[in-house]
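Long-time lurker, first post. I've been practising inverse folding by hand and with some scripts of my own, and I keep getting stuck on stretches where the structure tokens seem ambiguous. Below is the full token string for one chain I'm working on. Before anyone asks, I'm not after the true native sequence, just a reasonable design that respects the backbone. If someone could post their per-position residues I'd love to compare against what I wrote down in my notebook.
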């Protein structure tokens, strides 16, 4: 084993998932809204936060207006 390693040479590739990282935020939602997404998520078999993220991402990707 070497006494010293050059970290830059060990894995020169960039993280391919770096552009897909999520950012944690705090958001206030009505209880009825959370209940709606929780019941829909349970029916679909995915976590409700993932479902909310998918919905918001679809709105942003398609430039949906209020």
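-- Answer (accepted) --
I ran through it position by position. Result:
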């Amino acid at each position: 084993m070497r006494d010293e390693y050059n970290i830059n040479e060990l894995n020169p590739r960039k993280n391919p998932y770096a552009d897909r990282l999520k950012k944690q935020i705090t958001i206030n939602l009505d209880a009825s809204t959370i209940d709606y997404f929780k019941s829909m998520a349970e029916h679909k078999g995915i976590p409700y936060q993932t479902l909310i993220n998918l919905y918001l991402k679809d709105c942003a990707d398609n430039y949906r207006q209020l």
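A couple of notes from the structure itself: The longest helix spans residues 31-44. The CA atoms of residues 5 and 59 lie 47 Å apart. Happy to go over any region you disagree with.
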